[in-house]
Amino acid sequence: MSDEATADFRQLDIAPVLAKVKKLQRDRGYRDHKGLFFVEGIRNFVSAVDCGFSIDALLYCEKLLTSPIARKMVRRLKRAGVPFARVSPEQFRQISQTERASGVGAILRQHAQRLDQTNPNESLCWVALSRIRSLGNLGSLMRTAAAVGAAGFIFIGDGIDPYDPNVVRATMGALFNQRIVRANAEQFRHWIKSHRLQVVGASPDGQLNYDQIGYARPTVLLLGNERTGLSKDERLICSHLVRIPMKAGMDSLNVAVAGSLLLYEVFRSSHRQ
């Protein structure tokens, strides 16, 4: 029996898979309970496979999937025994949230780890947040973090979902090489103290400009909500509060821009050492 024929035994019923994808896309509680999320698009798919994410189910459409690299990956995953659903263009467009349906997607296992299992000392820096207004901004920030070689993101509390479809789409694949850590506020404070980490927070009333301090390796960048900034408790955690200079009368920057400036300053600082 050929490899392709053997793989067909792992073909899934289409209707239940499409229903599962739709629920994962719209229901965070379901995503968290199952420990799954859905990605679509060539870049996200290739990045997830290259970074070793566990695939719960593969979806593809022969007519829509034109990328040779992605087609080769689909064949390899099928031969490896990954469950799959082969769908029509109309069926794939039912679950696609992009302007142009790529013809490939996957239900993936979430990769979130505990803070007490995380050693920060081999890292350039981490980004920590507890709240964010725009999920797209979080995705953009993850792209910058990946570009400078940051280790990953620490999400304090349960207010942020990095596996929301809007975040995943905005990361353009960067999500898959960033470590995702969840913790409560007390765990975060204990982790910072036990590892003696420098925590730099951004605030309009910071005493120094963001490029006027030394960034230790590793540094934790603690970012606040665009509207309310850092909370009182978060400010107390910070070793330094820095400001990003702006023209008088201008409003604060969004978290993606502010965080990116800090990330590139950490990157620049590390290359001076």
Q: What this model shows, in words?
A:
- With 273 residues, the chain is of the alpha/beta class.
- It has 2 domains: 3-110, Ribosomal protein L30/S12 (60s Ribosomal Protein L30, Chain: A, 2-Layer Sandwich), CATH 3.30.1330.30; 113-272, Alpha/beta knot, CATH 3.40.1280.10.
- It has helices spanning 3-7, 14-26, 28-34, 42-50, 68-79, 89-95, 135-148, 165-171, 185-195, 232-237, 255-272; strands spanning 36-40, 55-60, 84-86, 104-109, 112-114, 125-129, 152-156, 179-183, 198-202, 208-209, 219-223, 240-243.
- An 8-stranded parallel beta sheet has the order 5-8-7-6-11-9-12-10, with helices on both faces. It has a 4-stranded mixed beta sheet with strand order 1-4-2-3, sandwiched between helices.
- Strand 2 (55-60), helix 5 (68-79) and strand 3 form a beta-alpha-beta unit.
- Helix 7 (135-148) packs parallel to helix 8.
- The longest helix is centred in the last third of the chain and has 18 residues, at 255-272.
- The protein is elongated.
- The model has no long low-confidence stretch (mean pLDDT 92).
Indicate the structural class: alpha/beta
Helix content: 25-40%
Mean pLDDT: 92
Shape: elongated
Radius of gyration, rounded?
21 Å
The count of β-strands is 12
Summarize the structure.
With 273 residues, the chain is of the alpha/beta class. The protein contains 11 helices and 12 strands.
Blueprint of the fold:
Blueprint: H1 3-7, H2 14-26, H3 28-34, E1 36-40, H4 42-50, E2 55-60, H5 68-79, E3 84-86, H6 89-95, E4 104-109, E5 112-114, E6 125-129, H7 135-148, E7 152-156, H8 165-171, E8 179-183, H9 185-195, E9 198-202, E10 208-209, E11 219-223, H10 232-237, E12 240-243, H11 255-272
Parallel strand pairs: 2-3, 5-8, 6-7, 6-11, 7-8, 9-11, 9-12, 10-12
Antiparallel strand pairs: 1-4, 2-4
Helix pairs in contact: 7-8, 7-11
